[in-house]
Write a sequence for this structure.
């Protein structure tokens, strides 16, 4: 009788194992990330497991029945754990690669410390300084909100041609208040006489406007695993710490990926590159300024100037960058020359970087003889190391840390299902990728910009046409599935840097 009860228990635990195995199989293989060629082998493996445990249950004698029950329960528990973990992992991955449908544009109303009043309504008879040449719609919306808040539709508005003139007017007491998009504060403080802008002023009112993020429609759908695609990698260094697609880009890297030829080309572009700004009537501007009107504006400007189709973007801030490096267990790079930055020393040769040292390595420019060109070079070196680490089997052991590091700290318009397809392809063929990297040069100059005014000369970089054509040609080759190789950029010796 006791043996019969044991046999029944064995059967039911085996049945639980069978059901949990089949459920796990169908759920796991339904994910786009699961390689198709692995489906049949996994099914065979499950069937073998079920057969072996079934046979053990059938032939087990007194004493061994409990072993069979324990084995079935243990294996069923493992399957159930997988059933619980898979949806959770799926949810965490999808929360990283989520579409950015809307974002916020923030305008602040500033006054000088000497004119600061606790009660904003006390400013109802004040004069407002605005720069009206650019960003007209959002700025008018900010002015309307201020008028509504003060219940005064006849406020005196002082119009200025550019941002610098508007800030200068506040310092010269031409008006009591200044309405300014907060993304411009960092730029303002790079000007010596306004370097203490944040300390010299107080924010008395904030206007936040939610704006719709409009993506350019693709001419056709394509399988991301069968054709070259291009990603614009942008790094922000904002004072607010809030990740947004609006803001200056201190990292500007174009990444061509060809899954057919298994090649990646990383092209670092200096942030001060002087190109037309689509959002400013195509007036010449620093590349980093294009991001103030959104990452789509940056992509459009770079695409049109370099004649490269850019499909996707990925935006991170420096805090995220540090977390990613730490989550990967650090990076190994080949540093081309010795330099120092604060407490950090970076000797020439093989180096291991953790999150903190990698961040310093990518941000330093003042202690480099070639300034921002060197910083751009360091950024491409580190990005190459990150990609290599992500594609290695070692990254699997850091999977959970990487997911945690990217939660809410990464903006992209790449669909998660496309990412799954790429990962599944890599798991399936386990191919070795060839990574090629370039950092573009140029000639330093002092010029006016569409964003900060033509009378205010800022440091800019004129791209070298020979290098632009070279990148265009290499991109076209990749697009046609031709194999390219690492080369020396043309006219590298023509690059000139002006300390600024």
């Amino acid at each position: 009788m006791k043996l019969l009860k044991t046999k029944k228990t064995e059967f039911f635990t085996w049945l639980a194992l069978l059901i949990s195995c089949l459920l796990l199989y169908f759920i796991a293989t339904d994910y786009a990330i699961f390689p198709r060629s692995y489906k049949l082998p996994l099914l065979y493996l499950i069937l073998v497991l079920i057969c072996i445990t079934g046979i053990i249950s059938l032939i087990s004698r007194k004493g061994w029945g409990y072993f069979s029950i324990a084995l079935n329960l243990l294996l069923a528990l493992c399957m159930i754990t997988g059933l619980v973990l898979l949806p959770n992992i799926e949810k965490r991955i999808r929360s990283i690669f989520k579409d950015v449908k809307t974002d916020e544009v923030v305008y602040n109303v500033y006054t000088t410390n000497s004119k600061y009043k606790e009660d904003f309504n006390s400013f109802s008879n004040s004069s407002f300084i605005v720069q009206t040449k650019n960003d007209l719609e959002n700025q008018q919306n900010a002015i309307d909100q201020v008028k509504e808040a003060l219940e005064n539709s006849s406020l005196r508005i002082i119009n200025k041609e550019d941002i610098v003139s508007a800030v200068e007017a506040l310092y010269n007491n031409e008006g009591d208040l200044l309405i300014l998009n907060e993304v411009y504060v960092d730029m303002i403080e790079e000007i010596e006489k306004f370097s203490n802008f944040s300390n010299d002023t107080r924010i008395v009112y904030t206007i936040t406007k939610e704006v719709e993020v409009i993506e350019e429609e693709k001419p056709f759908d394509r399988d991301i695993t069968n054709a070259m695609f291009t990603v614009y990698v942008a790094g922000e260094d904002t004072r607010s710490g809030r990740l947004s697609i609006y803001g200056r880009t201190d990292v500007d890297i174009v990444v061509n990926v060809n899954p057919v030829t298994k090649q990646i080309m990383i092209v670092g572009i200096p942030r001060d590159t002087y190109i037309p700004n689509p959002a400013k009537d195509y007036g010449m501007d620093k590349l980093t300024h294009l991001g103030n009107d959104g990452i789509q504006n940056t992509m459009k400007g770079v695409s049109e100037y370099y004649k490269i189709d850019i499909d996707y973007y990925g935006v991170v801030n420096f805090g995220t960058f540090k977390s990613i490096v730490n989550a990967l267990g650090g990076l190994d790079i080949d540093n081309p020359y010795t330099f120092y930055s604060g407490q950090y020393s970076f000797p020439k040769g093989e180096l291991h970087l953790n999150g903190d040292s990698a961040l310093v390595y990518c941000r330093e420019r003042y202690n480099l003889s070639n300034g921002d060109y060197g910083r751009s070079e360091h950024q491409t070196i580190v990005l190459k190391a990150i990609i290599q680490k992500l594609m290695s089997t070692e990254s699997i052991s850091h999977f959970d840390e990487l997911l945690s590091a990217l939660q809410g700290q990464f903006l992209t318009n790449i669909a998660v299902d496309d990412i799954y397809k790429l990962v599944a392809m890599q798991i399936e063929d386990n191919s070795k990728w060839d990574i090629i990297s370039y950092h573009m040069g140029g000639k330093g100059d002092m010029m006016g910009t569409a964003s900060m005014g033509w009378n205010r000369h800022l440091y800019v970089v004129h791209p070298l046409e020979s290098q632009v054509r070279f990148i265009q040609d290499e991109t076209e080759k990749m697009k046609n599935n031709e194999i390219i190789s690492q080369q020396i950029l043309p006219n590298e010796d023509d690059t000139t840097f002006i300390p600024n």
Q: What stands out?
A: The chain has 15 helices and 19 strands.
